[in-house]
Amino acid sequence: MSDIVLSSAVRDNLLSLKNTAKLQSTTQNRLATGLKVNSALDNPNSFFTAAGLNDRASDLTNLLDNMGQAVQTIKAADKGITSITKLVESAKAIANQALQTQSEYQRKTYAEQYNEILQQIEDMARDSDYKGKNLLAGAGNDLQVIFNEDSTSNLTVHPVDYTDTSLSTGLALSDLGTGAGATSAFTLASGTTTIDLTGLQASSKLTDLAAWSDGDVVTVSDGTTSKTFTVGSGTGQIETVQDYVNALNDVQGIKASFDETTDQITIETGLDPAVTLSISKDNAGGGTATNGGIGTGTTTLTSTIMTAAASLSESGGFQVGDTLYITDGNGYEAASLEIDADTTVSDLVSLIKGVKGLDANFASGSVSLVGDVSFNITSTNKDFNIDRLATTDGTVKLTATDSDFKADTDIERILQSINSALDELRSSASNFGTSLSTVQIRTDFTSQMVNTLEVGAGALTIADMNEEGANMLALQTRQQLSSTALSLANQAEQSVLSLFG
């Protein structure tokens, strides 16, 4: 069969329709993809240039993500330093509070609070990590931030170590010694005896009695130590009954009084119950030892332990009007008690228990003390807490181990360390702030650069949708016209057939 031959007019119209269809396909593809260059075939130069720009933009976008995480890591460290600074300022406030009081117990309490603050600082530093990176945890936590594709532009943020507050390269704040408590005890005892001086008054001379003569010597002894008084009118000698009473009162651990109604000297002791006190008079001046208030020559006196309900004034170690003071190792007066006739042993124990940092228990005549810090119990009465005649210190001592906040100089030294730590924190905050600012600036720059690259790539490949829309409309119109032209061409050829009708 021979080939079909088309007329020139038909062939031209068919070709026109084919080209229009091809242009429509291209325009439709651009409208669908939004790109005027979809492959190297469209425009090799624009395609590969845009691809290079987009590749760099992609690389920078990946770096941008890393920079964003670096910003968060630095921010976590910055937040940690801010909180740690507040804790160090709290520690400074505690030290200043300790400096405002002389109470050793309160200072010990402040030292304990100070140590708790340091523990919180270390915990805060350990908790300041972000995705496993902690700029407050020291070695191994260096943060490197890369700013460009070949890593030639970068920043290394070096960490500090605040997880151990005692490090000299960190805050240089060490835990304080809070000291250690101590125990002590003292015995409360009492005993009473009388010496008869029948017929005498307080102002009477002892030698008014036949049993007494100048030169006689009175001896007070606890079996180990003796005190002697010579009867007479000389300096330091006892002449009157009152002189005798005064001499006995000068002996630590006993007290004496004279009752002019009964003509008796009453002697009370507070010495240790194991001590037997004897009062005797010799006959060196010619007196006798068988009468005159000495009885058989020696009067003995043994004390017994006191009960909780007993009045303190019943003991030779206490008198009505005495004042007891409880002071700590800094000399701070924690409590005081003025003794009256109704003040009991139980009252004294209650006073001690009321002192912060000090506790007491009374059993079998002994007051047991437990103290968190050192305490001294003293009295205005020199007979207080004297267990033997040779004893000269009437202080009840409880010696504990001092805390590191005991002395003003200790606290002032700690305050200096705290101020240095605050300087260190401010310096670290400044360094991290500078690094954070740098990373944020580079982040903003990189974001803008990515945008610039993407816009540049788009300028080479992105289609103008308005233009492509207009093209599509024009091509559709052309297609319709081409179809009409083809139809007319066909009709022209068909008119020849009418000649054969």
What does this structure look like?
By secondary structure, this protein is an alpha+beta fold. The protein has seven helices and 17 strands. The strands form five sheets. The protein has a four-stranded antiparallel β-sheet, with helices on one face. Strands 6-5-9-10 form a four-stranded antiparallel β-sheet, with helices on one face. It has a four-stranded antiparallel β-sheet with strand order 13-12-16-17, with helices on one face. A hairpin with a 4-residue loop joins strand 7 (254-259) and strand 8. Helix 1 (8-33) packs antiparallel against helix 7 (465-494), helix 2 (44-99) runs antiparallel to helix 3 (104-126) and helix 2 packs antiparallel against helix 6. It is rod-shaped. The two termini are 26 Å apart. The mean pLDDT is 86.
Radius of gyration: 54 Å
Q: Label the structural class.
A: alpha+beta
Shape: rod-shaped
Counted beta strands = 17
Helix content: 40-55%
Sheet with the most strands, sense and barrel status: 4 strands, antiparallel
Major β-sheet strand ordering? 7-8-4-11
Low-confidence stretches are none
**Total helical elements:** 7
Distance between termini? 26 Å
Average pLDDT reading:
86
Q: How are helices and strands ordered from N to C?
A: HHHEEEEEEHEEEEEEEHEEEEHH
Measured by DSSP, the beta-strand proportion falls in 15-25%
Subcellular location: Secreted; Bacterial flagellum
InterPro entries: Flagellin (IPR001492), Flagellin_C (IPR046358), Flagellin_N (IPR001029)
Function: Flagellin is the subunit protein which polymerizes to form the filaments of bacterial flagella.
Domain Flagellin C-terminal: 415-500
